[in-house]
C-alpha cells in the first residue's frame, strides 16, 4: 500500500506485513519544482539523476520491505548531503549559519550543486539565501524526516532496522569524481569503511550479487555519504548500507531510456530484498559481527 504525504517531497510504499527492512531512493526523482531555474541544459541535469532506481526497487514491497523515494531532483537539492554542506560559490551572500564543506561540495556537488557536469555550471547566478532555505524546508527536511521516522519506527517495533540507501552511478568516473576516468564495477557496496553496518552484512550483500555474476566492489569509489552516516549505528542494531548500481546494466546513458536488462535487474533487486527480509526475520547478523 502507498502512503500519501501533504508535501511534494517523497512517497512511501509499504509491504502488506510490516517488517524491519527499509529501502530509500533519494536521487531518482525528476519532478522539477517551479522555482528551479537552472542554466544547464535538461540533458546535462538528467545525468545527475539516479534514473529509474525507484522503479528498480518498486517490487521490494512484495518481499516485505518498505520503500521511500524522493520526487524532486538531486540537482535541485541533494538529500544525501548534510544540511550545512553549502558551497559558498552558489550563495548570493554569506550563509548565516555554520558551514561544513564535504569533499563532494569541494568538487561542486554539495547540498546545492555548482556544476551539472565538469565545466557545466548549474546556475548563471548565485542563489538568494531565502531560496535555499525554502528548498531545505520544503524538500530536504521532509525527505530526511520521513526516512528517520520510518527507520525509528522499524527499530522500535522490531529491535533492529536494516536500511539500504539505493543509488545509480555513471559507468565511468568523470572529472568531478574521485575515480576520474575509471571504468566502474557493476555494483558498489558502501558501509563507510565498516562503520554503518556489520562486516557480515556487507559481505552477504556483496556475495548475493557476485553469485549472480556481478562485479561488486566494497567502499570504492563510493563509501557511503551523509544518509548512511546519520543512520548506520551497528551497536544499536541500526544497519545502513549504500548501494550503487552501474547505469549501463539497466539503461542507455545517452538516451536515458531503459535498457534490455532493466526487468532482470529489477527482479534481482526483489530477490535481494527477499533474502534480506529472511535474514532480518532470523536476526542472523549481530551487531557484534
Q: Could you list some keywords that capture this structure?
A:
289 residues; single chain; globular
> Could you give the order of the helices and strands?
EEEHHEHEEHEEHEHEH
Please, what is the oligomeric state? single chain
- The helicity comes to 25-40%
What is the molecular shape? Answer: globular
Strand content: 15-25%
Low-confidence stretches: none
* Sheet with the most strands, sense and barrel status: 8 strands, mixed
Cα Rg: 18 Å
Explain what this protein looks like in three dimensions.
The protein has seven helices and ten strands. The chain is α/β, with parallel strands linked by helices and about 290 residues long. The radius of gyration is 18 Å and the shape is globular. The relative contact order is 0.17. The model has no long low-confidence stretch (mean pLDDT about 95).
Give a short synopsis of this structure.
This protein has 289 residues and is α/β, with parallel strands linked by helices. 28% of the residues lie in helices and 16% in strands. Helix 5 (199-210) links the parallel strand 8 (187-190) and strand 9.
Amino acid at each position: 500500500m502507498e502512503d500519501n504525504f501533504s508535501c511534494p517531497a517523497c512517497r512511501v510504499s509499504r509491504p502488506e506485513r510490516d517488517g524491519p527492512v527499509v529501502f530509500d531512493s533519494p536521487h531518482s526523482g525528476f519532478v522539477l519544482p517551479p522555482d528551479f531555474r537552472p542554466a544547464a541544459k535538461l540533458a546535462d541535469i538528467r545525468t545527475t539523476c539516479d534514473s529509474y532506481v525507484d522503479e528498480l526497487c518498486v517490487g521490494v514491497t512484495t518481499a516485505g520491505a518498505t520503500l521511500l523515494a524522493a520526487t524532486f531532483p538531486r540537482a535541485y537539492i541533494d538529500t544525501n548531503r548534510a544540511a550545512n554542506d553549502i558551497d559558498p560559490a552558489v550563495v548570493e551572500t554569506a550563509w548565516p549559519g555554520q558551514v561544513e564543506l564535504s569533499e563532494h561540495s569541494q568538487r561542486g556537488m554539495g547540498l546545492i550543486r555548482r556544476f551539472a557536469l565538469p565545466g557545466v555550471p548549474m546556475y548563471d547566478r548565485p542563489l538568494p539565501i531565502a531560496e535555499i532555505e525554502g528548498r531545505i524546508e520544503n524538500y530536504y527536511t521532509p525527505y530526511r524526516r520521513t526516512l528517520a521516522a520510518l527507520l525509528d519506527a522499524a527499530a522500535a517495533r522490531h529491535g533492529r532496522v536494516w536500511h539500504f540507501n539505493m543509488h545509480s552511478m555513471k559507468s565511468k568516473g568523470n572529472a568531478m569524481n574521485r575515480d576520474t576516468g575509471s571504468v566502474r564495477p557493476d555494483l558498489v557496496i558502501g558501509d563507510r569503511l565498516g562503520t554503518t553496518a556489520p562486516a557480515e552484512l556487507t559481505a552477504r550483500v556483496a556475495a548475493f550479487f557476485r553469485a549472480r555474476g556481478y562485479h561488486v566492489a566494497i567502499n570504492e569509489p563510493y563509501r557511503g555519504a551523509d544518509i548512511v552516516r546519520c543512520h548506520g549505528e551497528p551497536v544499536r542494531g541500526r544497519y545502513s548500507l549504500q548501494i550503487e548500481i552501474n547505469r549501463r546494466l539497466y539503461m542507455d546513458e545517452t538516451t536515458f531510456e531503459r535498457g534490455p536488462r532493466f526487468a532482470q535487474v529489477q527482479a534481482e533487486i526483489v530477490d535481494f530484498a527477499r533474502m534480506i527480509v529472511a535474514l532480518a526475520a532470523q536476526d542472523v547478523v549481530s551487531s557484534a559481527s
